[in-house]
């Protein structure tokens, strides 16, 4: 999904996803696994800045869980 005014975010996220795929293919030949963690929308204070309620609801609905992620759920990844 493309969100207005998110050029740098979407470009960098796409680059990381493609880099991960390329590394996985290249390093897989050596039996090295490559993973990336790419959480979907997370309901942080920074996330809500400049977003309309309509946009927040739309992004919540298309998220795999049908809602925004919770920041505290990502803490286990540290």
TrEMBL record:
Keywords: Oxidoreductase, Peroxidase. The keyword Oxidoreductase applies. The keyword Oxidoreductase applies. Pfam families: adh_short_C2. One of its GO terms (molecular function) is oxidoreductase activity, acting on CH-OH group of donors. InterPro entries: NAD(P)-bd_dom_sf, SDR_fam. Belongs to the short-chain dehydrogenases/reductases (SDR) family. PANTHER family: NADPH-DEPENDENT ALDEHYDE REDUCTASE-LIKE PROTEIN, CHLOROPLASTIC-RELATED (PTHR48107), RE15974P (PTHR48107:SF7). This is Peroxidase, 2 family protein.
């Amino acid at each position: 999904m493309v969100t207005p005014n998110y050029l740098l975010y979407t470009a960098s996220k796409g680059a990381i996803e493609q880099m991960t795929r390329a590394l996985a293919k290249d390093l897989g030949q050596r039996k090295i696994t490559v993973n990336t963690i790419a959480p979907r929308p997370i309901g942080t204070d920074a996330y809500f800045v400049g977003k309309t309620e309509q946009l927040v609801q739309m992004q919540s609905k298309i998220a795999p869980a049908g809602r925004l992620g919770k920041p505290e759920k990502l803490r286990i990844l540290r």
